[in-house]
Write a structure and sequence with these properties.
14 strands; 5 helices; alpha+beta; 7-stranded antiparallel beta sheet
């Protein structure tokens, strides 16, 4: 048996940012979300480089080669960031998260580094299938504000030589729905609301737009990038690839 994907992707700057440092790609075999960081220009460059480096592997490969192919592409993206920093030392603080899936037959490879996320909805149960690479840290309040806990990223693609993603191989079943997103969604929108939207909005495009709207209604503190994918029986006409966010420019 083989399966296909029906997908939609969207990205929004949010309510509190001047520019969009997120990038995403959704194609017939490849899905990827990258949340850039490192200043006004650096974040855009890091996430765009990552998506641009991954895009060429949007092609059918054997199931045996899925994980290796995706891992090699993510490591190449990290190297592309290193080369750009070498050319422009002012960008040395830039980096990006990366959560990506590569499909073949009835399986998918998942690569993940950072705090963007992937979720799977199966039989009406929502599972978070990635683990945030963050460390909880107490920050001192400013101007009399009370100290507060904040999450600090500890693993990203930033050109350093030891930046390896988490990798796994998963089975894809018809009826599954996947969500890939930046933390601009999961910050203001809780898991219960994610579940409600993913189980009630039948079309991926509608689910994507609803989730972006809810993140903005929750304050839109960061850029918001969302991909929703349905696993379906093969034979449905594939959409052309979709690129959103900074990589689109």
């Amino acid at each position: 048996m083989r399966v296909a994907m029906r997908y939609a992707a969207g990205s929004d700057v949010g309510r509190n940012r001047e520019n969009n440092e997120d990038s995403a790609y959704a194609g017939p075999w490849l899905l990827a979300v990258a949340d850039g960081m490192g200043g006004h220009v650096g974040g855009e460059i890091a996430s765009s480089l990552t998506v641009q480096t991954l895009a060429p592997i949007d092609a059918e490969v054997s199931q045996d080669a899925l994980v290796e192919t995706l891992e090699r592409a993510v490591l190449s993206a990290n190297q592309a960031i290193a080369q750009r920093v070498e050319q422009e030392p002012a960008l040395q603080s830039m980096g990006t998260t990366c959560t990506a899936m590569l499909w073949s037959g009835t399986h998918l490879a998942l690569a993940h580094i950072g705090d963007s996320r992937a979720y799977m909805l199966r039989e009406s149960i929502l599972y978070q299938i990635t683990e945030d690479h963050t460390l909880e840290k107490m920050l001192t309040g400013e101007d009399g504000a009370a100290p507060h806990l904040a999450n600090r990223l500890v693993r990203v693609l930033d050109g350093k030589p030891d930046r390896k993603p988490d990798l796994s191989l998963r089975e894809a079943l018809p009826g599954d729905r996947y969500l890939l997103c930046s933390d601009g969604l999961t910050g203001p929108v809780d898991a219960e609301t994610l579940h409600q939207v993913l189980t009630t909005q039948q079309e991926p495009d509608a689910a994507v737009q609803t989730l972006i709207d809810l993140a903005n209604q929750g304050g839109g503190p960061d850029n918001i990038t969302v991909i929703v994918v349905d696993v379906i029986a093969e034979g449905v006409e594939a959409r052309p690839p979709v690129v959103v966010g900074a990589a689109r420019r």
